[in-house]
């Protein structure tokens, strides 16, 4: 920490943190909260189907959710 001439510490000055804005997600929505409609439909599909059939049965819903997430700029 820098000190002044008489040995007292200088007040800490911090510049405000500037976060870059994602033009696809200007509100800053977190990935857990984005696309609730497609997320719910995908999750319900996996709950309705057994684990062996779920991957194929829910394929379209998974792709829709991925497309929605990418629309917000998330790289999944």
UniProtKB/TrEMBL annotation:
Q: What is its main location?
A: mitochondrion
Binding of Cu cation, residues: 32-33
Q: Where is the protein situated, by its record's location annotation?
A: Mitochondrion intermembrane space
On the tree of life, the source organism's domain of life is Eukaryota
Query: In the UniProt record, which is one GO cellular component term?
Result: mitochondrial intermembrane space
Fetch the SUPFAM superfamilies from UniProt.
Answer: Cysteine alpha-hairpin motif
InterPro entries tied to this protein = Cys_alpha_HP_mot_SF, Cyt_c_oxidase_Cu-chaperone
Query: What's an example GO BP annotation here?
Result: mitochondrial respiratory chain complex IV assembly
Q: Which UniProt keywords apply?
A: Chaperone, Copper, Disulfide bond, Metal-binding, Mitochondrion
Q: Which Pfam families does the record cross-reference, listed alphabetically?
A: COX17
For this chain, one GO molecular function annotation is: copper ion binding
The family this protein is said to belong to? Belongs to the COX17 family.
What protein am I looking at?
Cytochrome c oxidase copper chaperone
């Amino acid at each position: 920490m820098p000190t002044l001439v008489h040995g007292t510490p200088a007040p800490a000055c911090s510049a405000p943190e500037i976060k870059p804005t994602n033009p696809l997600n200007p509100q800053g929505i977190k990935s857990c909260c984005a696309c609730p409609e497609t997320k719910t439909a995908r999750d319900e599909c996996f709950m309705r189907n057994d684990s062996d059939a779920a991957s194929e049965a829910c394929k379209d819903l998974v792709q829709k959710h991925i497309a929605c997430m990418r629309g917000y700029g998330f790289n999944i």
